[in-house]
Each structure stands twice: as structure tokens, then as C-alpha cells.
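Reviewers of the previous submission asked for a worked example of the structure-prediction workflow described in the proposal, so we include one complete record here. The input consisted solely of the amino acid sequence. No template or homolog information was supplied to the procedure at any stage.
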Amino acid sequence: MKLISLALALVIATVGLARADKVPTKLTWYGHAAFKIETPNGKTVLVDPWITNPTNPSGKDDVKTIKADLILVSHGHFDHVGDATDIAKRTKAKLVATFDLGNALVGQGYPKDQYGFDSGGNFGGTVTLLDGEVAITFVPAVHSSAITDAKGAVIEGGEPGGFVIAIKNGPTFYHTGDTDLFGDMANVGKFAKIDVMLACIGDHFKKTGATAKLLELKIGQPLSL
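From that input alone, the workflow returned the following C-alpha cells.
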């Protein structure tokens, strides 16, 4: 967890830019760990939506207009939970999170009827949502996950994690969440063909190394895949 200078690298493994003969999946970075994925059928998935983070100059406007059908939260730290609850109240987006984290976020104000057994899970499990448009697998991370409420009390947030996000007729993403490098990350690619890896590049809070082609993203500018 870091306020300003946390960077995420977009790691392109085998996916190319969108061909002219297909409807692309679009990926937009909003700074920090916040990403938007737009599916070929027009559905919107937000991951760790701290849209108003200090690196996003238009964050205060973006958070009022951004669309969402699903909101994925990797762990309980404020810089990843971010604006999830405010966006959910406006968009009615379902929360996708591990069981303990999802219940904790509902306890902190995420709309109760927008989270349940259909969108919660645990490591190794997969939920298929949006009429089959998106399949999301929960994977572990090495980090921490406690939530600090408005009064400063620390609340158990379950285990930290990441997501493998498979888009129908589109690429498969691996968002690592905040994690140290650990050996079992190598197993993710044994069970899913990862096209795009969204990997944290840390400091004293976490460290992930990656050997792959890096593609720079500009905040707020979508990339077609």
C-alpha cells in the first residue's frame, strides 16, 4: 500500500492490439491499481477502483460518471477499496471479492443486495457473471488486507488476493493485487492462458518482478486489445 507512487505495469504476454475484424476489449488505467475493462458486449468491470487517487488529474469528475457492472476488490486497504462503495450506489454494480472481504465491505456500507454467493468466492474458485461474459477466478497474494473504518478501528478483511479475469471473445487478464513475488504465481499460467498481466511494482510495501514486454499506459486513455 502506498499513497502516490505505487505503479502497476501492464505486461503483455501473447495478446496483440485489436484486429479490425473484431470488437475489441478495452482496458483503461486510472492510476495506482485502478483499471476499467470494457468487454466486447459493452459490459464494464472495475478493479480496485480508487479512481480519485492523486495520480489521476480528472479523478473527481471520473468517479461521478464512470460506468460499472462489476466491481472487483483485491484486498481491504483504502487505496484498493477506493471509491467502490460510492460507485456501486450510483451504478448498482455487483461486488466481486473473497467471502470475508466481501462481507466486511458490506459491513462498511457497500450495498448489501449487490453482493452474495453468486459474486463472492475464495481462492481457486471461479464465478461466471454477466450472462457468461466474464469468468473471474480468485487467486492468492502475499500481502495484508485489514480495513480501517471511518473511526480508525481496524476490521478483519480476510486474505489478500488477485484475480484472473477471462473475457468472452477477448483476452484473459491477471490482476495481481498487491503482492510480493511468490513461487505459486507460476502456477497461474498452468491453469489459464494469461494474455495481460497487471502486476504491481512495489517499494517497501511489496515487490513483484516480471520478465516480459512492458507497455506503458496513459491515465484515462483506453487501450484496445
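The radius of gyration is 16 Å. We consider this example representative of the routine output the project will generate in years two and three.
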